[in-house]
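STRUCTURE:
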């Protein structure tokens, strides 16, 4: 597993569904450079079971991300047409109707590969025949990218394990607190709590409270 933290986030250009019903081509990550933070998350498949709980939870928290200047983007290896159909299906029938943030179609698996969240791999035998080991779908990867396009946080869960939206928001808050105040955020830090100056004295002062 590659560690992308501290590195430039791999850019991409792919089809995506935006605003819940519009298919656009050449959706890129670089369009947000200098303008917004990006929370890019990968999920395995449309029309599954854990995935809609996560995608709908991100939508419910979308206002919290937006007021922090964060663009939420979902991505899976399904086609844009699969995304569109899922977005037109009501939640009580297994769909994700009502989601408005972009969902990218990584049909060629290149985005998942670049972010090193692709489960399964191509294998070539001695005769040059290519097969696939596992299934070429994305793990539950999550990447927080700053306005300069640098990955500041990454998290990758195996397929059965859903993520925490509140932890994603907490991580955004911690990054922005550091950027604005120069203070580092200790374990379980929450917005509004005391943080620490990055020094031995700062740690001592924090621990003495």
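SEQUENCE:
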């Amino acid at each position: 597993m590659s560690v992308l933290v501290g590195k430039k986030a791999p850019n991409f250009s792919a089809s995506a569904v935006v605003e819940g019903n519009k298919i656009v081509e050449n959706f890129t990550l670089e369009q947000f450079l200098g303008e917004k933070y990006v929370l890019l998350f990968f999920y395995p498949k449309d029309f599954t079971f854990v995935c809609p709980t996560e995608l709908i939870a991100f939508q419910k928290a979308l206002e919290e991300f937006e007021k922090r200047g964060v663009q939420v983007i979902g991505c899976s290896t399904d086609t844009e047409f699969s995304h569109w159909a899922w977005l037109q299906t009501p939640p009580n029938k297994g769909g994700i109707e009502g989601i408005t943030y972009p969902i990218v179609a990584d049909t060629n698996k290149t985005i998942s590969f670049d972010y090193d969240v692709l489960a399964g791999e191509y294998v070539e035998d001695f005769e040059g025949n290519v097969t696939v080991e596992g299934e070429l779908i994305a793990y539950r990867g999550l990447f927080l990218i700053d306005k300069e396009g640098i990955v500041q946080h990454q998290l990758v869960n195996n397929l059965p394990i859903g993520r925490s939206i509140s932890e994603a928001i907490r991580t955004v808050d911690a990054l922005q607190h550091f950027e604005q105040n120069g203070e580092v955020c200790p374990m379980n830090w929450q917005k509004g709590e005391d943080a620490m100056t990055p020094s031995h004295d700062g740690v001592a002062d924090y621990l003495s409270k």
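REMARK: The first strand starts at residue 13 and ends at 18.
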